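Handout, section B. The chain below has 259 residues.
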Amino acid sequence: MALVSADSRIAELLTELHQLIKQTQEERSRSEHNLVNIQKTHERMQTENKISPYYQTKLRGLYTTAKADAEAECNILRKALDKIAEIKSLLEERRIAAKIAGLYNDSEPPRKTMRRGVLMTLLQQSAMTLPLWIGKPGDKPPPLCGAIPASGDYVARPGDKVAARVKAVDGDEQWILAEVVSYSHATNKYEALFQKEQLVLALYPQTTCFYRALIHAPPQRPQDDYSVLFEDTSYADGYSPPLNVAQRYVVACKEPKKK
């Protein structure tokens, strides 16, 4: 239901965005005549080589109108940018929801790994479409805009891409691109990996279905899989033997653990 609702809202936003783009073009076309008058007035002043009170008054009125036209167009563009930001947010929420629900196309089974070239292209596209902040005169950039640091109480949301400092198997620490899984207020730390015995939803090997499972062992290296124990009543302890599942197909489970 959540996915359907998101799709419906995205469709509405795209329609509204299309209308805003049309309004922008109409506003620009409407103001074009005034800009031409400004240019012609300056040309007449240069030809006559004087700035008379008449021209001063006329230019003042033309520039006042041009300023109002520019502000009107700017307001429309701001609204369009807000729509784009909302669409991107909904698409990200839908992506996370789809991972949890296990909505994959049976005719195109999910791949365990992504080629480096494809990943780099996706990262580049993501960088080029980051939300654009355009402030009004006197506005200060918000936190996390450019070099502006986050506020002291800021908490990244699940799904946010972050630079995470992690410890490798050899003990060396390095900064990597990671996706936030959760935040622990108790430890004041983010989880970029699920921990041992944590309840998750994992894609069962050779299927396109997610099932509840416990983390048996988290990956030790970036390319390693999770080792998970799927819930299975056919076993005495209620769990299957350890099975490997790719990191991208292990997601948070919001349902309570069965007792």
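Note. Residues 103-112 have pLDDT under 50 and may be disordered. Compare this with the example in section A.
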